[in-house]
């Protein structure tokens, strides 16, 4: 089923245009495949932005880059049950398809692909795609053994359906990006992965659909995450090479906010996600915290000269 | 690297033609992708026959069907290390690239794809594709937990590289066929799987590259496998509905050959590979034996009317 949605761009407040923006919403795999077959036959370069919806500026920055560099743009919205654990926020995850459709239209997305969970995972579905435990059993995967296998499985399905030339991902989910890149290389998927910088609020908080869970008080505490990352960056810049000392300082900074429950603070080799004994080379500094009902993550990458 | 191989078709005995048959041999993934990109751009229907080489009439029947129904035919030869256990015959597996190249040329294969293991699995390779344990931990996977994950992983890679419209597989490896079908459906691979009947010697022995391991005496014993399957078929046709009784009779028939070491004899639901309490519906009867150095498998499918 393909539905044409009309939405007056003028209804989005500040952004007043006279044009009526439209986006095609496709809800079945078969219809999506037919659209792709036609585009591929006409040699269109296809850009793909996979999302779980609840669009914010991070998503829109990915869509804009796809729009700029590809002939056709597909954004998908799918809250993937495989990547949520039994205690996690799948049911509560923010959904606003009407608003997302309007924003997609405004950004000139060609197709918004919104498949149903029961078509993506029929009762006899059993397949799984994953990469090695060194990538998926650390950081955000440490206590969620199935999480990243759920991510690579759904991304494999989406890439097979949409067959994009380029897929656009945000650095905020760095581990996810690295895992998808590994999967694409290992399995010869033949799709370029384009990674774009984390989009932040003015006070540094990384944009995330889950920020909507925060109370006012929690929201005031949240920028400490980015401040802690900047502290790490500063320490690396002035010569800190001991990961233990740096991580202790970062953790201490986070704990100045009493509402913040620190899940992990880590410094890793950015290519392999291995622990490092000395802070040198490309270092990923990554944080996950719980703040009220929200689990928030953020990271920065710092290139540390090996010789210094 | 692409090498054009010439081989005089007249050198293959009975099949005398005046034409000099040629087949392009491609050994790198990048070159293969370039060829496929060109064919896809020209809207050619691509047929694919994945093999481990040592071609016999079974392989040739798959190639001929691909040739008949597709514009372009790729056969791959890759003895996939992921699907061999540590105690298995990977090193001994018969290889004869020169003969395979000659036969591929004769059958008008367009490209023989012969990738190197070190390019298929570089040192940092970790990805894995698999389907549910109910398909991979039974029959030929029972004591080889990694075997079928190795199969689906390599087939995923090959399908991503070759992007065929149709892939041709032989029913002799029925469990493998079912698992690949499940994987293709579950992951939306968008490739048709065409299954062709088992090709047999005059005495009923299923053609297999591993038959070359058999001594003369073992070769004389080997047809008992098919005879045991025909016994099962006959019992089903005359109304046997008790799997235990049938499997005992089949096992007894196999054991009349003292050289034969029975690994399993099984009757399963042909779609789910589940055990059945009553022989009804589409039944897979499958056998695996060891005969000297060879591990041989065979199967038949019988449609048993539920009401009878």
Q: What is the compact description of this entry?
A:
By secondary structure, chain A is an alpha/beta fold. Chain A is about 35% helix and about 25% strand.
Task: Explain this structure.
Two copies of one chain form a homodimer. Chain A is of the alpha/beta class. Chain A folds into two domains: 7-196, HUPs (Rossmann fold, 3-Layer(aba) Sandwich), CATH 3.40.50.620; 209-301, 2-Layer Sandwich (Pantoate--beta-alanine Ligase, Chain: A,domain 2). Chain A is built from ten helices and eleven strands. Chain A has helices at residues 29-41, 57-69, 97-106, 117-120, 133-136, 147-162, 174-186, 216-221, 224-237, 243-255, and strands at 2-8, 20-26, 46-51, 72-77, 111-113, 128-130, 166-170, 192-196, 260-269, 281-291, 294-304. In chain A, strands 1-2-5-4-3-7-8 form a seven-stranded mixed beta sheet, with helices on both faces. Chain A has a three-stranded antiparallel beta sheet with strand order 9-10-11, covered by helices on one side. In chain A, α6 (147-162) crosses α7 and α9 packs antiparallel against α10 (243-255). The first copy, chain A, is globular and about 55 Å long. The A-B interface holds A 29, 33, 40-41, 43, 125-132, 134-135, 152-153, 156-157, 160-161, 182-183, 186-190 and B 29, 33, 40-41, 43, 125-132, 134-135, 152-153, 156-157, 160-161, 182-183, 186-190. β6 of chain A pairs antiparallel with β6 of chain B.
